[in-house]
Amino acid sequence: MSVVSLIEYADASAEVRAVFDDIMTTRKVDSVNNFWKALANHPATLRQVWEEVKAVMAPGALDPLVKEMIYVAVSATNGCEYCTYSHTAGARAKGMTEEMLGEVLAVASLANKTNRLANGYRVPVDEQFRRS
Amino acid sequence: MSVVSLIEYADASAEVRAVFDDIMTTRKVDSVNNFWKALANHPATLRQVWEEVKAVMAPGALDPLVKEMIYVAVSATNGCEYCTYSHTAGARAKGMTEEMLGEVLAVASLANKTNRLANGYRVPVDEQFRRS
Amino acid sequence: MSVVSLIEYADASAEVRAVFDDIMTTRKVDSVNNFWKALANHPATLRQVWEEVKAVMAPGALDPLVKEMIYVAVSATNGCEYCTYSHTAGARAKGMTEEMLGEVLAVASLANKTNRLANGYRVPVDEQFRRS
Amino acid sequence: MSVVSLIEYADASAEVRAVFDDIMTTRKVDSVNNFWKALANHPATLRQVWEEVKAVMAPGALDPLVKEMIYVAVSATNGCEYCTYSHTAGARAKGMTEEMLGEVLAVASLANKTNRLANGYRVPVDEQFRRS
Amino acid sequence: MSVVSLIEYADASAEVRAVFDDIMTTRKVDSVNNFWKALANHPATLRQVWEEVKAVMAPGALDPLVKEMIYVAVSATNGCEYCTYSHTAGARAKGMTEEMLGEVLAVASLANKTNRLANGYRVPVDEQFRRS
Amino acid sequence: MSVVSLIEYADASAEVRAVFDDIMTTRKVDSVNNFWKALANHPATLRQVWEEVKAVMAPGALDPLVKEMIYVAVSATNGCEYCTYSHTAGARAKGMTEEMLGEVLAVASLANKTNRLANGYRVPVDEQFRRS
């Protein structure tokens, strides 16, 4: 179905297996999702994306659940089916309720609407919003 | 600069003034931003958008700061200059630090990147992500 | 300001002048907009785009004003500043009132909102919408 | 298939049934589409979106068919599968012919093309397009 | 499945058959893809798009493979399933290896990421990037 | 002008200076662009993005000029003003001629057009484009 073959652990190179192992250990799961099996076709991208996801999605000034909900809002905005399914599942696993999902999508869809009203009317930015 | 004239309170109809008054009262400010002065060219849209913003951005299952940060992430994704400036200012007013803004944009830009990797490889959605 | 120099009629090649002449004759104006002066840097694109615009925007099953309003809705959706200004001006020249512009943007922004609700909830297409 | 369960009338709360009843009465149909069954997971959004659709898509300075065609053009621009199917069906129900659909998509796709030429060359907006 | 019927050669008008014949002759194939069968519902668009594709994708200052890879990068950015599949196949037919596809998507996804960082921080354009 | 202050070398932390130094050494320049001065507000993002840009844009299966042209095509598609200016300048520094830029934008804008025709008609993917 995808434009590349999904690479299973059994068929993966040592380089790819090392990343798959780190994903499974970090997430405490016994297999990796199709996204990683597809990226395995380009090991450098697989490693770089996993390292970035691990660092960016970790607890910081924002907690992991808030980060997952921002991910869902952006993925819905871009119409990415895969990321919408996977990050909605990820946010639920971190505690997102149906009510919270409803609010994430209400805010994201409102933003998409007002973004176009601001762009359609070409509203000039208020001076107080600009930093001196 | 905008494609429509910005309607000032002094020149506004009673219908528009009623919305401007509610915005100023609700937000405890003594003037409205350019966005509302532009929407005032179509009173029905001005009223509808304000009522929706007031309801959707209010405290709920998500707190107002989280909602503003989702708004910033979506506005940056769509490249809306006006909304990025206004909602970044709004999120700061609600307590967003520079570190938090850095994480909002790190997550939003990572999502924009992986959305394209998933779409470029056309990764099939894992069965466990679909609800029965 | 642009990433290419704008080519003025006086400095244009015969090939470019021929297109500029057709634009001015067809539109009954005595100069061409910056868009065409920029495309003049790649004559094949200048000619192809002008021929397409002339054919697609001509009266057909839809009248030219409806076509210009669709152009405004798409340009606002994509956040294209230049096209939003130029096609809003074009629609007004063909009779679009402020009330009509208000409705064009109300519909376009509502569509941008519901597009994200449908994509965020991944709503399955109803069978009756698919053609046998 | 969707990330939420579709809520059927038989399983809906009184609050949701009231909106479903109004949709069926207003549209003279005996069931609601999947979009509304998905939004029913967040009743406040279901009510708000339905009220907005009912008001914005009603006859005004633009007739309902023109509004539906603008909706199709925006949905195709955003790549929203659900909205493209549902609003193409809605426009046909209001009288859109295959020739008209062909022109809607010819204009929308041309706008998507010239939006990128204007953005790629960063064409400066002509002074006459800006309002004093 | 599509919102229009796919028009097969046997059912096509002489006008449509002439374009189908040119596509098959130019590409040395004995049938046309679904994209062209769908466009055949609006013959003027079918002819215009085919003439444009034939001219723009031909060898020029850039070779056809580079053009196909740019097409893949844009289609993945827009999330167009059909164009991603068809142009990835087209690029492979012209010599794109899996390693090259991996780099095309690594660059395209990085660009999508930095586009949002630049838009989220609203970074001012450096003077040296603007032409005098 | 930006939503954050641009951090100059003189005011930068040792962590930020280390990245600025590597950018200047790698690119053989004596200052860094505004993009990096803005990212310096979030050092982790500054370092991560620079390391990724350095790795992804390096010579590989694709040469750096082709990569820069893909970057321009994606940035124009997303309407990112900053990235369009900076990567068009970067591509020119690597040898892109005006004719090549013209072809990059002709291909990118054509892709944006056909992406919407495929999405608007919801064209089903041809079986031969899918991998078994």
Description:
- Chain A is mainly alpha-helical.
- Chain A folds into two domains: 1-58, AhpD-like (Up-down Bundle); 59-123, Up-down Bundle (AhpD-like).
- Chain A is 65% helix and 0% strand.
- The first copy, chain A, has six helices and no strands.
- Chain A has helices at residues 14-27, 34-39, 43-56, 64-78, 81-93, 98-121.
- Chain A is elongated, with a radius of gyration of 19 Å.
- The model of chain A has no long low-confidence stretch (mean pLDDT 96).
- Chains in contact: A-B, A-C, A-D, A-E, A-F, B-C, B-D, B-E, B-F, C-D, C-E, C-F, D-E, D-F, E-F.
- At the A-B interface, helix 2, helix 3, helix 4, helix 5 and helix 6 of A face helix 2, helix 3, helix 4, helix 5 and helix 6 of B.
Find the biggest chain interface. Answer: A-B, 67 and 67 residues
CATH superfamily of the largest domain in chain A: AhpD-like
Counted beta strands of chain A: 0
Number of structurally distinct domains of chain A: 2
Shape annotation of chain A: elongated
CATH topology of the largest domain in chain A: AhpD-like
CATH class of the largest domain in chain A: Mainly Alpha
Into which percentage range does the β-strand content of chain A fall? under 5%
Structural class of chain A: mainly alpha
First and last CA, distance of chain A: 52 Å
Order of helices and strands of chain A: HHHHHH
Helix content of chain A: 55-70%
Oligomer: homohexamer
Organism (chains A, B, C, D, E, F): Paludibaculum fermentans
InterPro entries (chains A, B, C, D, E, F): AhpD-like (IPR029032), AhpD_core (IPR004675), CMD-like (IPR003779)
Pfam families (chains A, B, C, D, E, F): CMD
Protein name (chains A, B, C, D, E, F): Carboxymuconolactone decarboxylase family protein
